[in-house]
Design brief:
This protein has 488 residues and is α+β, with helices and mostly antiparallel strands. The chain has 11 helices and 23 strands. The protein has helices spanning 2-14, 35-49, 92-106, 144-148, 180-194, 198-207, 256-268, 274-280, 362-370, 377-380, 404-410; strands spanning 25-26, 32-33, 53-60, 63-74, 79-80, 87-88, 230-231, 237-239, 253-254, 285-286, 310-311, 316-320, 323-332, 335-342, 347-353, 412-416, 420-427, 430-435, 441-445, 450-453, 459-464, 470-477, 480-485.
Amino acid sequence: MRQTFVWCLIAMATASLAVGQQSPVTRLDGSTISVAEIDATMTRLMKAAEVTGAGIAVFHNGKVEFLKAYGFRDKEKNLPLTVDSVMSAASFSKVAFAYLVMELVDEGKLDLDKPVYQYLPKPLSEYPKYADLADDARYKRITARMLLSHTTGFANWRWMEEDRKLKIHFEPGSRFAYSGEGIDLLQLVVETLREKPLDELMQQRVFELLGMTRTSMIWQDRFESDYANGYDEYGRSVGAHRWKNPDAAGSMQTTIRDQARFLQAVMDGASLKAKTREQMLSPQVAILSKHEFPTLKDETTDDNKSIRLSYGLAWGLYWTPYGKVFFKEGHDDGWRNYAVCFDKQKSGLVVMTNSGNGEGIFKEVLETVLKDTFTPIEWERYTPYDKLPPRPPLKQHKQVVVDGKVLDRYVGRYGVPPDIILTVRREGDHLSVQENDEPKQDLMPESEMDFYSTSSDDTMTFQTDGQGKVTVMILHVDGKDIPVKRIE
């Protein structure tokens, strides 16, 4: 009954999104902006910043006043982006997952302040993924509140560590440091607690409940009819993320229409008790870091004290003359997303782009369409497109012909199981590599051992032992040489 009721409310609020879009859109200060002005702004910015496609939804008084998509979902095939094109949510996944967690809190199934290891049937360090923590008893202090507020002491991802191992860098709960690892740990707890995989839980408890009909934590065959490819800063396609395994930190596939529905639900507190919603959107930790990324930098600043920059449970928070604001970013290769809501007014904006250049337009979109001049752009490192340094020219590569028998020697799996698996395949006269569920990249040979990616700046070198057996693939990424052992 509750699910039907909530869905009906949201459906009524969004059913007319495509109707009446010729009406002016109300901004924060009460002024209005016409649809023609929004169209002109988006068209100009996307062209100037080289953004392939963008979807945008604007809210006022808890209702979507504007919803539209611009540009292309597939530039090569000249296919337009639509409001129902499936895109990578990236870290929007975290706040959707948090909604599920808060429902469990509502029901008394999860205590935000109980150490999460106590929910598991065996010590956390006995799980292969968390064996690195065996000698650090501080993991026993980590709670769901810390995981959602990014105060665990984990790096964003363990592969960013020099030794690729998970470690705790500071006393859990003492400071903010954004961490996907923390969200993934809470996923393990939730799946163990409910004895169901995350994709099933999210489908039943969040997406179906809120009418998000084209959203999933894993790729669905039904998405094939209308989905977007991601594009890097140079306009090279990185494809679509066809996730096979759910990841609470970043695997959600969704549309701008469905994200509009989700933001409406958060503004309304649909399916949550009022006190639970308030707790989700209340400060858990003050943010003093100079920038959000890199996450473990010690550099601090007082620049954001005036806006009380802080983090709630999965949401960023700050205060303005209009009151409290909650926000969330989404950032992945070829995808840049941003959502912001002014809580008292129930006004806000969500924009999703399938372009590595998307962040360059956020500041002007927020200021022009919403009259939002308060977003901590500097902390989030959202440099406007016209302030960016010149883009370095792409390195020139020359493909050579390599015997197929040589290519076959490199086929296999490399990595650090179970977290990072790079699968190398033979693709005719070249190779391809795929990291976990991410889109595969074509690798073209520059020599018998050296290969370059056609969709990134990455290059790879394969090494052999004394018997001529391929044992290591060296990734040349961002000026670093990263050896990755062959595992089969």
